[in-house]
Specification:
about 100 residues; mainly alpha; 5 helices; globular
Amino acid sequence: MANAGGPVFSIYALVEKMTKETFLGVGARCFLLVNVIKLPLVASIDLINANSLRLVFPFSPGIFAGIFVGRKIIQLIPQKLFEFLLYGFSVIAGVRLLFF
């Protein structure tokens, strides 16, 4: 059940009629805050340590590639299609949370 806030946030965003850009911006900030708050707990149970950081660090440039590609892709997706996809993926995620 950890990190299961995505479907709930998606439905909230749909109810609030957020644009796709607002959805992405608010979602990124919201989950950044949640994950920063969780950092001390995750570090205290040794899920984050020097070894794990050494393993992850080489892949960090992928973050910037993802930002660049994501900005290009979101410009190509119409708002209505974005909302349709958001509903669809929220249903799939909700079902998975219930049964898996």
